[in-house]
Amino acid sequence: MKIINLMEDTEGASGCLYEHGLSFYAETKTHRYLFDFGASDKTLVNACTLGIDLTTVDTAVLSHGHYDHSGGILAFSRINPQVSIYMMVSAGEKHVHRIKDQMKDIGIDSQIRDLPQVHLLNGNCRLNNELSLFSGVQARRFPARGNKSLLREKDGTFVPDDFSHEMYAILQADGRRILFSGCAHNGIVNILEHCRRLYGWYPDMVIGGFHMILNHYRDEDIEMIEQVGKTLKQLPTVFYTGHCTGEQAVEILKQTLGEQLQVIRCGSRII
């Protein structure tokens, strides 16, 4: 099995474009997967640069309803119109980022829900003998301050996002259990506990962002990140993170997790 990053916020492999977004390609003996699509068709350009043929992908998953994970879907659907794309039905709702008194649209393109290959889910789903999807994380330990400025539309007004549109993928292949977490808006600790309740185990690997990035870190933010690190340290799991985790948060987590935490750059390979 191999897992290759197709888009991340930071420069990595030679020749790869990078921008705020996330996408991973995973290849097993029997399937080709795409987890998230980045913010634009630059994800497809990187796939070509890295020698990956996205027309062979048979299953694709959108982790949640934000543009930086969904922006490449329409371009991808044109080169691979037969692939099944799975997303939560609520991922198609209107999502915004409140910056002072301004509302910035951060939702997915409205055309995506109308694609014939899109499957809208409203709960957990097992797709094949390797891949299953779950949602419904309710716990709120270690809440990220950055979530407070993210809203969703409800009954014609904007309310705090509860991230019910967030979905997680479990890939089991070659003796490994891998959790793809997208941005982990619901909190990586809460997601892992929910995984354990559903499956009876913690994954061997977690891949994705932890949404800890901030323009300025207060003492309480640093303390929260340190507590997350101490909690994750107790688990039999290796973490590959980047994107919305933030460089400073990674440095804080590294103090506790050491080599248990690996940083993803654009084009990174996990084999």
From TrEMBL:
Q: Gene3D superfamilies, from UniProt?
A: Ribonuclease Z/Hydroxyacylglutathione hydrolase-like
InterPro entries, alphabetized: DHPS-like_MBL-fold, Metallo-B-lactamas, Metallo-beta-lactamase_dom, RibonucZ/Hydroxyglut_hydro
Care to name a GO molecular-function term for this sequence?
transferase activity
What residue intervals traverse the membrane? none
Coiled-coil regions listed: none
Q: Which residues belong to any copy of the Metallo-beta-lactamase domain?
A: 20-243
Which SMART domains does the record associate with it? Lactamase_B
According to UniProt, the name of this protein is MBL fold metallo-hydrolase
Upper classification of the organism = Bacteria, Bacillati, Bacillota, Bacilli, Candidatus Onthocola
